[in-house]
Amino acid sequence: MHVFGTASSGETATLHKLESPSGIRAEITNYGGTITRLFVPDRAGNLADVVLGFDTLAAYEAGSPYFGCIIGRVGNRIAHGRFSLDGRDYTLATNNAPGGIPCHLHGGVKSFDKLVWHAEETTRDGAPALRLTRTSPDGEEGYPGTLDVEVVYSLSNDGALRIDYAATADRTTIVNLTNHSYFNLEGEQSGPILDHVLAIHGSRTTPVNAGLIPTGAITSVADTPLDFRTARRIGDRIDADDDQLRFAGGYDHNWVLDHAPGTLGLAAEVVAPLSGRTMQVWTTEPGVQFYSGNFLDGSLTGKTGGRYVRRSGFCLETQHFPDSPNRPTFPSIVLRPGETYRTTTIHRFGVA
Ligand code: GLA
């Protein structure tokens, strides 16, 4: 454990290293539960850091586009920052406005990614692990109920990064946690990810309006540029003449995964053609947001001094669907007292 820096709150942020015999090494700070570095071997055994990020706490605090962090209480967008629960109306901050249409994004203004968590180095099933916990007070960012949250990162012997999320509440509330790592499997300074080959095991999506809010429809990906049922280059159709792509400036959509929700299923597979690095994403969640880094614009300088250009990282945010609190037909994100929220996502690395 090292000191990463002093947060503007005055708290000390720490940095923790997890190492697996497979050669994979992760560095994670308790500031936002952020994965700052993730070294993974290529087909020749050479390690590269495959996640985007900064080298100082100050840079994260100055403005990070959610590099590597835990997202909460509710990942993704809530239309107009409004929802009702058990007959009561709630208003959350509107901290995002794609297409000029305001929404609540990724938990609000001082969300889980911007707070210092309690950290404990431990093991999980014999694998090195970091256990992060936090009690989110009743009313934090406008959400009802005190929420006790636990996120455990572990690195298995065979090279998988596992994230186990758990939460309980003392009042009925909503919760949808995820991790927002930006990957570039060629290495974090390798430019656009458009040559990565991607498969998503989801035959349907939740199409959005210009504010990136689901219309409520659940439609087949067949004959659309969102069809990744068979692996293909991310760049193949990213600039196709298509409203969904236009609204988001590329991919920034939720796929409805084909496996049974609540069971661990294969959500996505990615291959980086030059290095041969591969990543599988397994999850118990019903959806995944594939975001192709469209908002990166070269203005952020990364941890090794280079700038992160447009689409130089991609995210696969395992999750419940966007705007779930306002969509009774989507799987529910309601958590009631006495229940335990539990989800798991595994990133399994290999070579091709
Ligand atoms: C998520 C959203 C994107 C964008 C990024 C952060 O992936 O869906 O629209 O806001 O976070 O820049």
Description:
This protein is mainly β and 352 residues long. The chain has a single domain, classed as Distorted Sandwich (Beta-galactosidase, Chain A, domain 5), CATH 2.70.98.10. It is built from 2 helices and 27 strands. The protein has a 9-stranded antiparallel β-sheet, with no helix packed on it. A 5-stranded antiparallel β-sheet has the order 1-2-3-4-5, with no helix packed on it. A hairpin with a 2-residue loop joins strand 8 and strand 9. The radius of gyration is 19 Å and the shape is globular. The model has no long low-confidence stretch (mean pLDDT 97). It binds alpha-D-galactopyranose. Alpha-D-galactopyranose binds next to strand 24 and strand 25.
Q: Give unreliable regions as ranges.
A: none
Bound molecules: alpha-D-galactopyranose
* CATH architectural designation: Distorted Sandwich
* Biggest β-sheet strands, sense, barrel: 9 strands, antiparallel
Class of secondary structure makeup: mainly beta
Strand content: 35-45%
The ordered H/E elements are EEEEEHEEEEEEEEEEEEEEEHEEEEEEE
Helix content: under 10%
